[in-house]
Amino acid sequence: MTSISANTDTPARLLSLDFFRGATVAAMILVNNPGDWGNIYAPLEHAEWNGCTPTDLIFPFFLFIVGVSIAYAMGSKKTDPATHNKTILKALKRAFILFGLGLFLSLFPKVFTDPIGAFQHVRIPGVLQRIAVVFFISSIIFLKNSEKNIFRILIALLAVYWALMTFVPVPGVGYANLEKETNLGAWIDRGILTEAHLWKSAKTWDPEGIFSTIPAIATGLFGILVGVYLKRKDIDAASKIAWLFTTGCAAVVLGLLWDLQFPINKSLWTSSFVLYTGGLATVILALSYWIIDVHQYNRFTKPFVVYGVNAITVFFLSGLIPRILGMIHVKNSAGTEVTLQAWLYSGFSSYFSPINASLAWAIAFILFWLIILWAMYNKKIIIKV
């Protein structure tokens, strides 16, 4: 974390964007923190491979929001080339911090008990790491290119990724394919990172791997284009909403059509997945903008906004706390030593069925952070990364 802001001299924020960001982060915490990984409602799980569940929408929505935020935060700097290098250096610094926070989550707590072993087997890709890369590269593309060029780059990324994944024979396999361990992306990730630094649940591939970050950048660019359009002052709000709804629905349809040949798949971050999720995100943001910013129906937004203004902070800490709870041991009523998290969770499992106890724990975790974030918001404390 680089600084804490408690002033009100910053430009007015787009409330619907904070709302959308907050809802997305809250959903991310919900699906990442079940009480029992063996008991989860189906919509709160990722698709086994091809396909898309509500949970699969969360990460691309966040990267889309990163893109929209770039358009708003860097829009004034884009028109002044003299500031570009300084802005890029700031973006690089933020990217390094985000990447470092992600690595720290991968290393913690083993880095304090077995530092050599921790670094030898640390997972290098990850959610925060991908956010860092997408943010930095998208920022450069935004500053250095016109909207038309950004659109061309987006299409080129999707087309090139599709061509490489579906037509290039995978070394050692002999043919192009989209299976978990034998696709081109998995082969590239293993070659660069080795199995020691990939997702531990698979070891042979990684859902946030290097190669699939290429189309993830396209998701960020999708958000940038929407943000640029939303900022335009020469178009009335009704026309903006109409065009964004039309564009979003068209992208969803194109994604579903492309799915017939290049399946929608979050782990591969396929080009069809980018269009499908980007389209849905556009529709949701347009609807939020129309309700919250245009018609000023915003009484219901504060719980989500408090999450949205400190999104990275709460995501990082919500990943850290369960690890800390797992390090602390206490004795339960039977005199058996258990982790503090298991002891706390037993209070839920005593009153609910296994699957509902798991969900109740996740909801309680969200409410716990809501109380903290609400207090921070009231004191105008925003931790900037």
From TrEMBL:
It comes from the Bacteria. The keyword Amino-acid biosynthesis does not apply. The keyword Transmembrane helix applies. Keywords: Membrane, Transmembrane, Transmembrane helix. The chain crosses the membrane at residues 57-74, 95-112, 124-143, 150-170, 209-230, 242-261, 273-292, 304-325, 358-377. This is DUF5009 domain-containing protein.
